[in-house]
Amino acid sequence: MSANLKQREIFFLNDSVSVDSGGRVQSMFLRSKTWEKDVLATHICTFNFRPQYRNIFNDIHKIKKLPDNVFFMNIYEFFSEDKTLFYSDSVVTFDEYERKMNFVQSTKNEQVFEYKENNKLLQRIKLNTNQSISMIDYFEDKKRIKREIFRSDGILLRTNYFNSEGFLAQSDFFASDGRKYLASKYNEEAQMTYILHFQKNGNVNQFDNEKQLKDYWIFQLNEMSNRPYFFVEDHRLDSCVIENSFTNKIMSVATIHGNIYGKDGSYGSPLRAYTKGTLENLDKFGAVILLTDEMKKHITSQFGERDNLFVIGHPFLVNKTRPTVSKNLNRGVIISKFNKGKRIHLAIEAFANAVKEVPDAQLDIFGQGDEKQSYELLIKKLGVEKNIHVHGYTQDAIGEFQRSGFSLMTSKAEGFGISILESLSVNTPVVAFDYNYGPKDLIEDGLNGRIVPNGDISALSRTIVELVKKTDSLNKLSKNTGKVVEQYSKDKIREKLLCLFDYLDDYQDELPVVVQSLSQSVHSIIKSDTEFKLNLEIQIKLTNTKNNPACYIHVITPEKMEPLLYKGVHVDGKYLFEITLPLEMLPIILKSPLDPFLLGIQNKKHYQMFDLPIIKEKIQSFLM
Q1: GO molecular function of the protein, one example (predicted)?
Q2: Any idea what the CATH number is for the domain that residue 76 is in?
Q3: Backbone phi, then psi, for 602, in 5-degree steps?
Q4: How far is Cα 275 from Cα 277, in angstroms, rounded to an integer?
Q5: Which pLDDT belongs to residue 197?
Q6: What DSSP line would sit under 113-126, residue for residue?
Q7: What is the pLDDT of residue 508?
Q8: How many domains in the chain?
Q9: How are beta strands 41-46 and 9-13 bridged, if at all?
Q10: Angle at the Cα of 279 (from 275 to 282), degrees rounded to 5?
Q11: Are 127 and 143 members of one domain?
Q12: Looking at residue 301, what is its pLDDT?
């Protein structure tokens, strides 16, 4: 264990949190339970402005049963020097305000009321669900000129001013006592020009932009704590730790939660903009957590091997006291966000086909999101209202999995798929599309679930029919679900996280190597009916390193094929490689406009790549 870990604090950095946030936020809550007895405190830091945040924080702590040494922090609370900024224990309802002026309810939104004089709109009020005032907009000549944002007890927290074009011109922030603590200024295009911070003691700080404001808060947290660890959960905050304006001494850990590829989410697709910056700056983080082995395989193929990459899945805390319930083996279940990326409409179509053969089959879908109505319309269109039911968000996901014979996962892409573990933990097999990432790491096809070709509705439908008809097969799958869950137990994940802390504490960075000279030669080429084998030697003269760094050859293809990576063997100052390529890959390699062979040199967390054009030339010469 890291020295004096019990005197150390951990800071999670995430833009926002809520009780029903997705997997990224839920994983923070789980990890805080994993190391609760090992560290002094865990702080979950948020960066968005939310008037009832402290009430929300209290609800999360209670509902998620977080440890006593887990605390929530917010950037606006810090700058306001007001711990009760986002807390209210009373409600001032709109009825009290309405008595003063004659407001009329909007025909478009029952939570919106408007005040007009001579048919001219002057004010518009938006209410919270508890009928307190959320905000008031003020108008002149049909243009909004000001917005006031309130706490539920009627305390004004923020005022936004707008220019004649409707763009934000200034934003003032107020503490509970009415004191202004921040003022942000914007130019005519609504681009921030500066922020003023008014301290309680009368001092005034100026920041050039919002990033600098965030940097300063993180810098202060780092200064006030004993060598803390900062876990960056939201990639939009990466630069605040790796390129902080006030310090370069932040022990940072990035976690890549989602799929790294865009479009269809498969290997070889363009990188997602959200994770691209993180992947291109791997050597600037103290450590980077990847959730699956397959994700690491793809990343090292494209960006190189580094010793600061750790595969640590989400911890799963099993409730061993959960009561036993009987399963409905005809029942399938989906628990998910309702968005297009989850592809639940494909599950509905597959299940609708399945019920033609197994009319007693039932599918219950739980969640919330914009796609709920489209699911209901599709169910009605397919005429399966008696078999498929859409429900709202459930606080008892484990219970719903436990009552079901099997669960379905049809996402386009995931970072891990905690729902798979939740299902397996209560002996409910999972049927999943073969997407990145999660299924191949958590499901062994035919043992504890089924993996079907990605997006194949017919294959999914056939699998559902098979499981419902053959209950013996379903029961067999159910008996084998426990082994994989054990791999993500609290103790197993804790051990991996403690190793990560040790690495951060012991790590002494070294500079990237400097290549003074590089020579390459192909010793032999052997072609068979199925493969192409090359033996080659590379000599490298390096500086900035006392040891022989690890060297790899990457084979890059423009097609969406599994990555190929070969590690060299160091012998007498040379690196020897044996590369075996499937014969069908050769035409792809030879047609590539780019050099398909790259040499990767690793020096701890630094990784550099160099072209190896001679290999392609030798292959072309051999085939002529």
Answers
A1: glycosyltransferase activity
A2: 3.40.50.2000
A3: -105, 130
A4: 6
A5: 98
A6: EEEEETTEEEEEEE
A7: 64
A8: 4
A9: parallel
A10: 135
A11: yes
A12: 85
Closest CA to 209 of 193, 222, 223: 193
The residues, ordered by sequence, that sit 6+ positions from 375 with a Cβ below 8 Å of its Cβ are: 338, 344, 345, 348, 365, 390
Q: In angstroms, rounded to a whole number, what is the distance separating the alpha carbons of residues 456 and 105?
A: 49
Task: Report the SS3 class of residue 447.
Answer: coil
For residue 453, give the 3-state DSSP assignment.
coil
Buried-exposed string 564-594: b where 16+ CB fall within 10 A, e elsewhere: bebebeeeeeebebebebeeebbeebeeeee
The token pair at 385 is 């209202």
Structure tokens at 433: 């599309």
What is the rounded CA–CA span in Å between residue 104 and residue 101? 10
Provide the pLDDT for residue 263: 74
Local structure of residue 314 (DSSP, 8 states): -
Is residue 575 within 8 Å of residue 568, measured between CB atoms?
Answer: yes
Which residue type is seen at 312? I
What is the pLDDT at residue 246?
95
The two tokens of residue 588 are 């792809």
- The verdict on residue 493 lying in a domain is no
DSSP-derived secondary structure letter, 272: P
Host H or E run for residue 143? strand 143-150
In terms of residue numbers, what domain contains 376?
328-488
DSSP 513: P
CA within 13 Å, CB half, 223: 9
| Cβ-proximal residues to 373 (8 Å cutoff; 6+ apart), any chain | none
Q: Which helix (H) or strand (E) holds 57?
A: helix 53-63
Examine residue 479 and state whether it is found in any structural domain, yes or no.
yes
What's the confidence (pLDDT) of residue 189?
Answer: 84
191 and 247 within one domain? no
Rounded distance between C-alpha atoms, residue 452 and residue 475, angstroms: 19
Q: Kindly report the CA angle at 91 between 88 and 92, in degrees rounded to 5?
A: 125
The 10 Å CB-count burial string (b at 16+, else e) for 221-230 is bbeebeebbb
C-alpha–C-alpha distance, residues 185 and 168, integer Å: 9
Cα Rg of the chain (Å, integer): 29
Hey, how many other C-beta atoms are within 10 angstroms of the C-beta on 447? Answer: 15
Predicted TM-score (pTM) of the model is 0.84
Q: Which residues of the chain have pLDDT under 70?
A: 1-3, 96-101, 320-321, 508-511, 544-546, 558-563
Q: Are residues 522 and 484 in the same domain?
A: no
Q: With H, G, I as helix, E, B as strand and everything else as coil, classify residue 515.
A: strand
Report the DSSP beta bridge partners of residue 571.
574
Q: Which residue type, as a one-letter code, is found at position 488?
A: Y
Angle at 358 between CA 357 and CA 363, to 5 degrees: 125
DSSP string, 163-225: -TTS-EEEEEEE-TTS-EEEEEEE-TTS-EEEEEEE-TTS-EEEESSHHHHHHHHHHHHHHHS
